[in-house]
Amino acid sequence: MSLPYFHTVILGTGAASLCAAVRLKRSGIDDMVIITDNRKGGTSRNTGSDKQTYYKLSDSTAEPDSPYRMALALSGGGAMHGDIALAEALGSENGFYHLTALGVPFPFNRWGGYTGYKTDHDPLNRGTSLGPYTSRVMVEYLEREVERLGIPLWDRHDCVSLAATEEGGKKRIAGLVLLDRDKLQSGESPLEGVLCDNLVFGVGGPGGLYKSSVYPPVHVGAIGLALEIGAETANLTESQYGIGSVKFRWNLSGSYQQVLPRYFSRDRETGEEFPFLEEFFSSQKAQTRAIFLKGYQWPFDPLKVAGEGSSLIDILVYREMEVLGRDVFMDFLTNPWEGSREKFDPSGLDGEVRDYWDQSGLTGATPLERLEQLNPGAIQLYRDHNIDLSREPLQIGVCAQHNNGGLAGDIWWESTNIAHLFPVGEVNGTHGVYRPGGTALNSGQVGAFRAGQKIARAYAASTLDRSAAEKSCRESLERMEGIRNQFMASLNPGGSDQARYREEMQNRMSRCGAFVRDGGTIEAACGEAEEQLKAYSLLTVTSPDQLPYAFRNRHMALAQRFYLEAIGDYLSRDGGSRGSYIVRVGKGIPLHGKLGGEWRSKPDGGELRRFIQHLRLEGERIISRWEECRPVPEEDSWFEKVWASYLKGEIFSPRD
Fold this sequence. Notes:
By secondary structure, the chain is an alpha/beta fold. Helix content is 35%, strand content 19%.
């Protein structure tokens, strides 16, 4: 019996995947299916921040904006192609107004203008927000439209492998292997193959790779599936990290910092508490200013460490946890410095802090009282997750939050080296070193629209060699069956080592591959990751129900190896501290006079920002290449020429 076939398969139920499904359906593609392991999972639906931002072209203010200005802002941080930045900018209004047409209630003024505010690395007021749950609301409205349009959705299906074929000397997607969770206890194999002409790959960022993470626990990512078939990556070195809570994973930006909580650490054995920030800040005024600015400057930034800057806090939190082995907390019942060297003195606050408090009417005697005045929903958020800030401090860490890199795609969000594979959302590595806050949501919506345009207009007719695709997909299915059979032959009801295997990955990534990096540590970590990947075949499972977890470990282990190799390759090319990480070197610049000699940072010379790092798997080797960034295009906008090019389909052809 032949394997089932769909013209287009959409993997994932995040904001980008659901948008792609809606766009495709409206463009006349009916033969498609959405496939997910958990339709209520994913980052889009289960994460947010103090004021989760959507970044869009500013079209409702007196100050003029243009797609070209926006493209320069998007690519200005380096390591981003200008033509992709222009595509994101030109598609911004389309993506945003598509959401408002679905009913997403972005705020507007009495004249209908969707005005905004400045966000990180943003020269204009391009940010807008629905509050803490912007992406969740987007998902809910997109899901409603998917249901209205009758687009089929297969829930509880894990993708465990992809299949590709050769076409004209280049790989193309051919299908995928799924694990049906509803068949785990049936006695029959839960694995099945599906063929497709096109795969929209919306599996999110590498959330499961880190111990300290604000990715929701239900999201682990699946980039390793594409890496295994040779898909090229872009900028895996570039992620964002910042302070977040660990019991309930949430960014601690904005009002959580602006009300000035007290930071302290606790010895895991004795319970002794340490007001560790006070040793490294010269005064109460300097420390409280840094805490306050952490609200605006949430992601760690090596440029904001010196001079008692806000990112010094991230370094000190990491030191307490990873070097001194202590747990770290934010306390909303006690003011900074209170009960220590001197009493907290609101009158001595930095002018910027004082002005903000006065403008916001903050008069509370404690951080919690001030948070109640400024943002009571921020308190309720934690109550909703069984954490009462009036009774307990908030345990924190420096957490992975977003991967600016991912799979390499072109201006249509199609993989650069595997045809008909369209990574959308966070798994597509469109962003560079720095990105304006909120661009991820814009990029996901624009990417979904662009991918849908190419599939509907250039790939509407099936070109899949069904015979070759079936052969490739069945071979992949047989490999996965072999892994399943091995697990089933060695069931270990007393306890398997799958959880420990993943924990080892997560600890290594948070220790070596997060925001503190150095050459010696990375070299050792790369070797350990390679050995861990080889050791996968020795693992066991407790029961068939653990198979989804075990198959995820397989592609996560490959992803871990790629991320560490990317960092190692960058450091081998004399890369320095940039974006959201520091590179430590023995003869670097001291980060602080009271930190030891190991805390010296190598500055970023900027040379590598002109390039994008690409990696791909060849056999068992990871090959790297560095591509110079393409500038923002200066296109001929003469209408008749554009129209002719459009009618001939030339707009979808690769450019030299």
